[in-house]
Design goal:
Elements: E1 11-14, H1 20-31, E2 35-40, H2 44-56, E3 61-65, H3 71-85, E4 90-93, H4 109-137, E5 140-145, H5 149-152, H6 159-179, E6 184-191, H7 197-202, H8 205-213, H9 223-234, E7 245-248
Parallel strand pairs: 1-2, 1-4, 2-3, 4-5, 5-6, 6-7
Length: 255
């Protein structure tokens, strides 16, 4: 039986790949045959554990550190991934953070710049660095990880984060139009309330309970439920899907 999501022989770079959705995505892509590079900043232990699990299962994986706020380090990460993997056929722009919840009256310009750089600029820089190789080979897939917050404005104090993710949804469409003629597909995945370290840091149990009340499926999602959708968009199974943002939120937001 043919595997329509076969990624054998492809190289994939997942930024923010040391935990949560990024780590699950690295595992799924490796299961489908890809060689994977796991970008990380602080969580070296987590990144090495993902590499260990993939290699123990017979896959190829490397961990590469880069500060998502530094363009030179992001470009260096892409270059190192190309050296290690031979080529980057799949780029998953997953790095990002809310940093902290703040109301308008407490929102400093420095925080605005940091959140925008982490969630939006980093995706642009990594795409800019990886796209030439994809264009040269006439194939490639970029998947940007956005958020339900980019559609609905987010929870309390998440205005800057939701704005950055909303901008990344728009940038996904622009980049898709620009790169499609060269055989490169660009799409996005928009997670809802997913049980990851993100919500352990930024959401209280009471907030999660309130979120779940608005989810028709009556529960939070898992990292793996996002990772498999990301893998679909990166695979040949999604060969005619372009510029889309796929919502993975249990019905919390239906478009």
């Amino acid at each position: 039986m043919r595997n329509y999501m076969d990624l054998t022989g492809q190289g994939a770079l997942i930024t923010g790949g040391s935990s949560g959705i990024g780590a699950a995505t690295a595992s799924v892509l490796a299961d489908l045959g890809a060689r994977v590079a796991i970008g990380y900043q602080h969580n070296e232990e987590g990144a090495k554990e993902v590499v260990r699990q993939i290699t123990a299962a017979g896959g190829k994986a490397v961990a590469i550190r880069a500060d998502a706020l530094r363009s030179d380090e992001l470009r260096g990460m892409v270059a190192e991934a190309e050296r290690e993997l031979g080529a980057i056929d799949i780029l998953v722009n997953n790095a990002g953070s809310l940093v902290k919840r703040v109301p308008l009256r407490e929102a400093a310009e420095k925080l605005w710049d940091e959140v925008m750089d982490l969630n939006l600029k980093s995706a642009m820089i990594c795409s800019q660095a990886a796209a030439p190789g994809m264009i040269g080979r006439g194939k490639g897939a970029i998947v940007n990880i956005v958020s339900i917050a980019g559609r609905n404005g987010g929870g309390p104090g998440a205005g800057i984060y939701s704005t950055a993710k909303g901008a990344l949804i728009t940038y996904t469409k622009a980049l898709a139009k620009e790169l499609a003629p060269y055989g490169v597909r660009v799409n996005a995945v928009s997670p809802g309330v997913i049980a990851t370290p993100f919500h352990e840091v930024f959401s209280t149990p009471e907030m999660i309970q309130n979120f779940v009340k608005g989810i028709p499926m009556g529960r939070t999602g898992t990292s793996m439920e996002c990772a498999t959708v990301i893998a679909f968009l990166a695979s040949p199974a999604a060969s005619y899907v372009l510029g889309e943002t796929v919502e993975v939120n249990g019905g919390q937001l239906m478009l």
